[in-house]
Amino acid sequence: QGRSSLWSSDWVTSYKVMVSNDSHSWVTLKNGSEDLIFLGNREKEIPVRNIFPSPVVARYIRVNPCSWFHSGSICMRVEILGCPLPDPNNYYHRRNEVITTDDLDFKHHGYKEMRQFMKVVNELCPNITRIYNIGKSQNGLKLYAIEISDNPGEHEVGEPEFRYTAGSHGNEVLGRELLLLLMQFMCLEYLSGNQRIRHLVEETRIHLLPSVNPDGYEKAFEVGSELSGWSLGRWTNDGIDIHHNFPDLNSMLWEAESKKWIPRKMANHHVSIPEWYQSENASVALETRALIAWMEKMPFVLGGNLQGGELVVTFPYDRTR
């Protein structure tokens, strides 16, 4: 599959596959006496499935692009499906395998698994965590958040509040897993006496919301990454892109600046949400309304939202004039 980007058209149109058992000697898959050429994408959204003509046993694999879209660059998202085949007589078996040295849970978590994961963290560290929800999705799934603090449930004067959110595009799964691992990591490190983590917990109130769009995640998860395009699960169940669903306060501020209303008629900070946006008829997702209500209720001094698909960091005002 190509790059799921609104700004570029990058995908590979053909590629070769090489395999190895020692990472030094490589063999290219053949079609008779010639190198086997696999057909890639014709456009960036729809994934292409290719099957080896015969089973291959290997420890390492390389995918070498041969051609790509003429107006773009080399970019491909690859998912390799296979099965483990241990060989106890192989000297190299498990010799170079990279494994984690901590106790973190590396896997994809569906909605129920995510909820159970958060419950386990809360039960392991009940004195510094609290689970709550900020509302529900269009399909009625609760938007769960976990708070990490030495006084869960209480705002302490002078103690900054921070939030991390993820999964506004339901099919961008990395953010959910990073926040789940972060809450687990902070709990385990706090219990082990890590002074840096203890300082964060005791001097900051941290809120982690791992899935803003659980409906989209479940939709994409049910179909599977090998059959779904970049857009499946991206939006809410009623077709709204949460990431672009918030009120455009930038234009209001810039218009006030051009009319020289600042600072006499209008402040250049804490710009109010327009009344029309808060009406029942406005095209605003339930998830978006829940996020706004949450941000208005909690005195956050800083926040970050995790997305996938691009190597980029955006910050206010997040658009050009």
Give a quick set of tags describing it.
4-stranded antiparallel beta sheet; 2 domains; 5-stranded mixed beta sheet; globular; 321 residues; Aminopeptidase; single chain; alpha+beta
Description:
This protein folds into 2 domains: 1-99, Galactose-binding domain-like (Jelly Rolls), CATH 2.60.120; 111-245 and 283-306, 3-Layer(aba) Sandwich (Aminopeptidase). The chain contains 6 helices and 11 strands. The protein has helices at residues 111-124, 174-191, 195-203, 214-223, 249-258, 286-297, and strands at 12-20, 27-28, 30-31, 34-35, 38-39, 60-68, 129-136, 142-148, 161-166, 205-209, 300-306. It has a 5-stranded mixed beta sheet. Strands 1, 2, 5 and 6 form a 4-stranded antiparallel beta sheet that branches. A hairpin with a 2-residue loop joins strand 3 and strand 4 (34-35). The longest helix is centred in the middle third of the chain and has 18 residues, at 174-191. It is globular. Belongs to the peptidase M14 family. InterPro entries: CARBOXYPEPT_ZN_1, FA58C, Galactose-bd-like_sf, Peptidase_M14, Peptidase_M14_domain. Residues 1-83 form the F5/8 type C domain.
Quick take:
One of its GO terms (biological process) is proteolysis. The protein has 321 residues and is α+β, with helices and mostly antiparallel strands. Helix content is 23%, strand content 18%.
